[in-house]
Specification:
mainly alpha, Arc Repressor Mutant, subunit A, 12 helices, Transcriptional regulator, DUF2087
Length: 251
């Protein structure tokens, strides 16, 4: 399963830990890294059993689950850049006076106001979460929405896509299957995102590609591969070195 789907479908307790486990592996919900159970892993002169190694992976790769989540696009968190900054300072355990000094704010009352506003967001989020869970229980026939990739540069109605819609669009535009010829690159934003997401699934998430390697994957699908490559970057599916020497799937 795609790491974005794993992330959005995971229970809150697993999201807080940053990973899920099955019979054979621990899987990082933040990047998809898998660590096999039953193996002792050496790292920096120490030995780690699998779950400890996954916890260590999250620390060395993502700093913490909190830092990873707080760094997501504001459309994902619902926080302004200023709120994210203050939330990070709260997480570090800094007092209102210390934050006031660091942000050069005239009064600690302003900091207390931010604390109150964030608490209010927490209450609203809990209420909405319960309501959505009850809605799911009430309507078992609802069509599942396609998970939004966490690195999306803009999140709006273009991402309002159900699984059945996605399948219909891909069947129409890739009549011989994704990876084969793309009939046309759609102008409609929603369909454009569906196509770009499907193409991204063809790439190895652990590999860095040269521009030539990337072109060789895209060109059999669509003659104007530069057009596709540019959109993959623009919509946050891929990232690259500034000189274009390496491309990779954003996580």
């Amino acid at each position: 399963m795609d790491v974005n789907e794993l992330f959005w479908q995971a229970p809150i307790d697993n999201l807080k830990k940053g990973y899920i486990d099955d019979e054979t592996h621990f899987t990082c919900l933040l990047c998809g890294e898998e660590i096999e159970k039953g193996i002792i892993y050496p790292y920096d002169g120490l030995l780690y059993e699998a779950e400890k190694m996954m916890q260590h992976h999250i620390t060395i790769t993502h700093q913490s689950v909190f830092h990873y989540l707080n760094g997501l696009n504001k459309k994902m968190t619902g926080l302004t850049e200023h709120q994210s900054h203050i939330l990070g300072l709260f997480y570090e355990g800094k007092s209102d006076q210390e934050i006031k000094k660091e942000l050069e704010i005239g009064s600690a009352t302003t900091i207390r106001h931010h604390r109150f506003a964030l608490k209010e967001k927490e209450r609203q989020a809990k209420t909405l979460l319960v309501m959505m869970e009850l809605l799911k229980e009430q309507d078992r026939k609802e069509d599942t929405f396609v998970s939004i990739h966490k690195t999306a540069t803009m999140v709006d109605d273009r991402y309002n896509v159900t699984l059945s819609e996605e399948q219909q669009v891909l069947a129409k535009l890739f009549p011989h299957g994704v990876g084969k010829e793309l009939v046309r690159f759609p102008k409609r934003e929603k369909q454009k995102i569906i196509v770009l997401r499907a193409i991204t699934m063809l790439f190895d998430k652990e590999k860095q590609y040269t521009e030539k390697e990337l072109n060789e994957i895209i060109k059999p699908m669509y003659e104007d591969y530069v057009h596709i490559r540019r959109y993959l970057i623009e919509y946050g599916f891929l990232d690259r070195q500034s000189d274009g020497s390496a491309y990779w799937v954003k996580k």
